[in-house]
Amino acid sequence: MHLFPCRKIIKALDPGMRFCIFATLLLGIFLSGAATTASRAVDRTLESPKSVLLVKDYKWASGGMGRPAIMKEITLQNVGKYDYENISIEVDLYTKNDIPLGSIRGTIRDILPHGSEKTFYNVKFGIMSAELQNTIARVAAADLIEKGTPAQAKDLIQVKGWEWTGGQYGTEGVLKSITLVNKSSDNWKDIKIRVDFLGIPGAKVGVRGFTSRAVIHDLLPANSERTYTNINVGFRHPDARSVDISVMSAKPISEKELKVKMAKKEGKKAVKKKKKKTTAQGDGTQAPGEEGGTIPESEEELSLSERYKQKLAQERGEIPAAPEEGTEPAEGTESVKDAMTGEGGEEVASGAEEGEEAVGDEEEEEYEYEEEVPLPSEDIVVEDLKWGGGVTGTIGKISEITLNNLSDITYAKIELRVEFFSFREETPMFSNKTTIYDVLPAKGRKTFKNIDAGFLNAIPQEIRVEVINAVPMGQ
């Protein structure tokens, strides 16, 4: 009834006025949509941590008048839509007759993803000002994670199970085996685990459980399950009644580092994908001992530098390893190079027909990597070394050292570890670190001269040099 006259009025208006009215209506619709979007954004902030983070259960490890308040474990559930971290827990203290005695606060500096339930251990609340009788714990606050949960090893690696080697509590703790499951697409190494001995003696409240830590110096590939053996976690606390093991942290590694280290563990070789194999003497140089015929029969006739050069050649498989005195090479013995590349044996050694794929190539394909990321310890190879000498109490000198950069990365500030031995490599003496402040080009071989080898505590009979780090140019 009331709209009919309005329709007549609109029709009576000129086209320009009608356009203005319709434009105003469209603007109103747009603004109402923006208001709806804004209301949804507000809805995100309206989700209160107090209402969506629930305390399911908790147990005390220590507490009482003037004593540290430590919660042995507390289980929280996140029924909200978002992830939270830095969760503040408030505990109200009461007497047995429910008379308030004040409250204490502690913070869990960890992450609780949405839709999950998680138990946290050994949460500290400071010093108690009352006796530990009745308590009520609740979530007081938490920080909203705006951009999703960061990828942390402790959330991505699960401890599936473990088994002790035997023995009782109060003795050395050695895990016969521990199985870890990597649920992520990341590769990890140096996995740090935490062992919580949760039991307390008797029924007395006020004794905290014992915590031990250990590092598994091994690899855990992406989306895999692996079992590690003989992990020493230290002393097994005699008061323990039960144990909980969790992952604290781990170091992420690149696909390249994973492939290289996995290949080494299995005695094979990792190569960059689609890279043609080159011979060890591709640069036209001769292997040690080739020039002029043979290697001297007795190693005592060689200098320290010559022995080192010969050893490098043996490790690269360029010359056969010298058998021990009084023994003959075992039948079918492979060279170090053959063992690493999977080559060797009569069929392969006799040469594959053109177009055939050698067995060694098939094995190498398992460890092909695509990414060219810095890995100085593997990218840079020590090819030759000449010891410059030195006396006890002075700075030793490497007169010449030849480094070969196998990667497409130019390196500088190359850090070396120099190990000294009194008799071959069976009797280590000491080691030093030194740095070459020069540039090693990508795919380049370069000889550096007069390198300080550090202070000499004694005169070495053997030396060993390895690359431990370097800085990629531009980083």
CATH class of the domain at 153-253: Mainly Beta
Kindly report the spatial arrangement of strands forming the biggest sheet.
1-2-5
In the CATH hierarchy, what is the architecture of the domain at 153-253 at level 2? Sandwich
Average pLDDT score: 74
Total of DSSP H or I helical runs spanning 4+ residues: 10
Q: Note the main sheet.
A: 3 strands, antiparallel
In whole angstroms, how far apart are the ends? 77 Å
Fraction of residues in helices?
A: 10-25%
- Gross morphology: extended
Would you tell me which CATH topology of the domain at 153-253 applies? Immunoglobulin-like
Share of β-strand residues? 35-45%
**Low-confidence stretches at least 5 residues in length (pLDDT < 50)?**
34-45, 202-207, 275-297, 329-365
- Total number of strands: 20
Please describe what this structure looks like.
Strands 1-2-5 form a 3-stranded antiparallel sheet. A 3-stranded antiparallel sheet has the order 4-3-6. Helices cover 20% and strands 42% of the residues. By secondary structure, the chain is α+β, with helices and mostly antiparallel strands. The protein is extended and about 90 Å long. The longest helix has 32 residues, at 15-46. Among the domains are: 50-144, Immunoglobulin-like (Sandwich); 153-253, Sandwich (Immunoglobulin-like); 376-472, Immunoglobulin-like, CATH 2.60.40. It contains 10 helices and 20 strands. Residues 34-45, 202-207, 275-297 and 329-365 have low confidence and may be disordered.
How would the blueprint of this fold be written?
Layout: H1 3-12, H2 15-46, H3 49-52, E1 53-62, E2 68-78, E3 84-94, E4 100-112, E5 117-127, E6 134-144, H4 153-156, E7 157-164, E8 172-182, E9 187-197, E10 210-220, E11 225-235, E12 243-253, H5 255-265, E13 271-272, H6 304-315, H7 336-341, H8 345-349, H9 359-365, E14 368-369, H10 376-379, E15 380-389, E16 395-405, E17 411-421, E18 428-440, E19 445-455, E20 462-472
